[in-house]
Amino acid sequence: MRPLPELITDPVYEKPVHLTTYQKFWLKRIHDKRDLPFVRLLTIVHLAILPVSILLFTPVFGKWWWPVAIVYFYFSQFYFKGSFGLMLHCLCHRKFFRKDKFFNRYLFWVICPLFGHLGDSYHVHHMGMPDVVMIYDAGHLRSRAEFARLRLRGKDGDL
Q1: pTM here?
Q2: Is residue 141 a contact partner of residue 147, using CB atoms and an 8 Å limit?
Q3: Which of 12, 23, 111, 159 can bridge 19 by disulfide, Cβ–Cβ 3.0-4.6 Å?
């Protein structure tokens, strides 16, 4: 078994000694205090990734379009992708905002496409596939046809 790297860059919740005004504002709105690092990540995404992605669809950059696109691609697909993937995984298991259904949907339908996920595609893949894949990997299915049949009917065969 490989040892874990010394430096883990994923957002981790550590109870702050003193809450800032920014943290207090968001703690009133988010469902789980462990999601506070995701608020910081989403703030950075909204300040850096979202505006550049919108501007890439305009003629603003002119001949600098390709260099800007390469920098955008690096940050959206390499630098933030791991942290965003962890956030997306956690948000599939619990809602992010307390009462606001709009902003919960906004994350999946506006922000996720910036990182290569279409709407609820990650949610469907993550929440729907694991049972069947685990059964198949454990060797309980006799053939690929049985795997396909199970997938088409649903994991219990009742769909």
Answers
A1: 0.70
A2: yes
A3: 23
How far from chain centre, in Å, is Cα 47?
Answer: 17
Q: How confident is the model at residue 143 (pLDDT cuts 50, 70, 90)?
A: low
- Give exposure, 106-125, as e/b (b: 16+ Cβ within 10 Å): ebbeebbebbebeeeebbee
Alpha helices (runs of H) in 8-129, residue ranges in sequence order: 21-27, 36-44, 50-55, 65-74, 81-93, 101-106, 121-128
Q: Is 112:105 a contact under the CB 8 Å cutoff?
A: no
Cα 121 from Cα 36, distance rounded (Å): 24
